[in-house]
């Protein structure tokens, strides 16, 4: 009987010990951020997906300690707008603001490794495209006069939106501004302008030659005062005071292309691939 009681006591203490260990591990787990990793091996945390943020500072400290022990090189933390109050907690723990996500979330980064940080700064360039739209049958160029821009004639164009290809930007902008339908033919150059927007953002401006399919003009009066077709000769001879600076360079490039038969930059290949859950699409342009 005594031996049976001893076995019961031992079993009871083992159960209590295992339960306490389990609860301790659960508490410790609850005091860590849930995370994933990117393809460079950095920790990725979405604050909005956490079950509880009751003890944010403690969770952050515990997690940083664990990530360092596990030798992760760096940490990305995405902070949804409604959790913006936690931003200072991240800064106090050595995180630096990196960029704003597409969903208006704040993305912070901390480098954990003792090696030099290899995380690049966030992109500081925007991409624009103009449509050098040609009516080849009549040897005419489409030019526009903006309502709110410099008082000069220019080529229609605008900025790239999410998941839009270069040629599609030019086609869309031409149609939106003038009603003219045209298809991408080739690239003849691009301009890189430093500190173009807000004194910090550079501007890459691609020059796309488009071939007109429907030439009737119907302008967007909120953007333009006027639009018209003019002959190659008239455009080439237009006074510099009447065209924008970049358009004068574009005009010279187009003239040389027509006169000398220089090989333009054409689209050589489209490709797409997947990495994890993300899909990628690319365009490759070549001189040959």
Describe the overall structure.
This protein has 288 residues and is an alpha+beta fold. It folds into 2 domains: 32-121, Gcn5-related N-acetyltransferase (GNAT) (Aminopeptidase), CATH 3.40.630; 125-270, Nucleoside Triphosphate Pyrophosphohydrolase. It is built from 6 helices and 14 strands. Strands 6, 7, 8, 9, 10, 11 and 12 form a 7-stranded mixed sheet that branches. A hairpin with a 5-residue loop joins strand 4 and strand 5. The longest helix has 29 residues, at 2-30. It starts with a helix and ends with a strand. Mean pLDDT is 85; it is low at 11-28.
Q: Count the E strands.
A: 14
- Indicate the CATH topology of the largest domain: Nucleoside Triphosphate Pyrophosphohydrolase
Mean of pLDDT: 85
Query: What structural category do the secondary elements indicate?
Result: alpha+beta
Please give the share of residues in helix: 25-40%
| Number of discrete helical segments | 6
Give the name of the CATH superfamily of the largest domain.
Answer: Nucleoside Triphosphate Pyrophosphohydrolase
Oligomer type: single chain
Name of the top-level CATH class of the largest domain: Alpha Beta
Q: Give a short account of the largest sheet.
A: 7 strands, mixed
Give the CA-based shape. elongated
Please give the CATH architecture of the largest domain: Alpha-Beta Complex
Alpha-carbon distance between the two ends: 94 Å
**What is the number of independent domains?**
2
Radius of gyration: 30 Å
Strand content: 35-45%
Q: Output the helix-strand order.
A: HEEHEHEEEEEEHEEEHHEE
Poorly predicted ranges: 11-28
């Amino acid at each position: 009987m005594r031996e049976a009681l001893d076995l019961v006591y031992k079993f009871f203490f083992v159960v209590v010990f295992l339960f306490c260990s389990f609860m301790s591990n659960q508490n410790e787990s609850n005091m860590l951020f849930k995370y994933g990793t990117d393809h460079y091996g950095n920790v990725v945390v979405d604050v909005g997906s956490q079950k509880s943020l009751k003890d944010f500072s403690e969770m952050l400290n515990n997690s940083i300690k664990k990530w360092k022990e596990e030798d992760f090189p760096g940490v990305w933390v995405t902070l949804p707008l409604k959790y913006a109050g936690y931003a200072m907690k991240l800064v106090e723990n050595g995180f630096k603001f990196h960029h704003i996500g597409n969903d208006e979330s704040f993305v912070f980064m901390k480098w954990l490794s003792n090696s030099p940080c290899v995380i690049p700064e966030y992109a500081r360039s925007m991409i624009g495209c103009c449509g050098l739209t040609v009516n080849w049958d009549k040897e005419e160029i489409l030019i526009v006069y903006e309502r709110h821009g410099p008082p000069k004639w220019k080529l229609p164009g605008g900025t790239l939106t999410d998941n839009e290809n270069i040629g599609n930007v030019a086609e869309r902008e031409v149609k939106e501004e003038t009603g003219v339908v045209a298809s991408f033919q080739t690239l003849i150059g691009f301009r890189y302008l430093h500190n173009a927007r807000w004194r910090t953002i550079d501007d890459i401006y691609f020059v796309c030659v488009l071939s007109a399919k429907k030439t009737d003009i119907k302008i967007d009066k909120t953007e333009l005062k006027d639009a018209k077709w003019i002959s190659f000769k008239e455009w080439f001879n237009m006074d510099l005071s009447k065209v924008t600076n970049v358009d004068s360079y574009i005009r010279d490039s187009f003239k040389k292309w027509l006169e000398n038969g220089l090989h333009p930059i054409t689209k050589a290949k489209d490709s797409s691939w997947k990495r994890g859950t993300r899909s990628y699409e690319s365009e490759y342009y070549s001189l040959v």
